[in-house]
Structures are given as structure tokens and as C-alpha cells.
Amino acid sequence: MIRDGTRVSVVTEGRLLKTATPVALLDDSCRIDPVFGRYPTLRDFARDATRRLPEPSVVTIVAGSQVDLAEFRAVQTLFGQDAKTVAFRIDEGATPRVSAVSGLTVITVGHLTDLPALLRRVNR
To answer: pLDDT tens digits, residue range 22-31?
Structure first.
């Protein structure tokens, strides 16, 4: 997306990452530190982190196995129905799968090697 000139915003609990080039994003991603307890819910984080950003056409959420479907759906409600929301649930050892619930696509990734096939399934 960055190479195609599409505006991309990547937010973490710590900050907005640099996205001028793919290398800048990768470099800035290496500086992500774990943050605990800053926000009571994933929705609170998403609302605060995206408050000053333009309205998105695609929202991607990456979270661990302890985030349930209700939390992903709560984030989805922050953005209009025109925004496509894709949630990646990282759950080591889980069976890879793609599911759709009310316009929300949830991709469960059990191993990094599962990711290419899962993305191909979503992009069909």
C-alpha cells in the first residue's frame, strides 16, 4: 500500500509509526515496546489512537489470543460501515482460519507460516 502511494496510518499504544516508505515502517516497528494498562479496553485504545486521523477505508487490528470477538466488534463500531475491518488474532498453535461476522473479517494465525495462505483466502 505504501509503495502504491496509499496513505497509511499505523498506531500502537506508544505512538503513530512512520509510514513514508516500507523501510521507515519496518524500522519504526522495531521500536515498539509492550505497554500494559494504559487503556481499559481495545476500543478505548482505538478511539484515542485514531481520533486525529482521517476516516479510514480499511481498519486492521492485530491482537493476541485473549482478545475476543466482542472486543474486535467494539472497535469496528468506531468506524463507519464503509470501512472494511480485518482483525488478526495471533494464537500460537491454533488452527488457521478466516471467519466473517457482520462485516468483520477475523483471521486466526497459529503460525507465521500460515499467514500467506490466509491472506490469499481473504483477498479472493
So the answer is: 999 999 999 8
How many C-beta neighbours within 10 Å does residue 87 have? Answer: 24
Residue 115's contacts (CB-CB under 8 Å, 6 or more residues apart) are 109
3-state secondary structure the chain: CCCCCCCCCEECCCCEECCCCHHHHHHHHCCCCCCCCCCCCHHHHHHHHHCCCCCCCEEEEEEECCCCHHHHHHHHCCCCCCCEEEEEEECCCCCCEEEEECCEEEEEECCHHHHHHHHHHHCC
Could you tell me the pTM of the whole model? Answer: 0.85
- Beta strands 97-101; 58-64: pairing state: unpaired
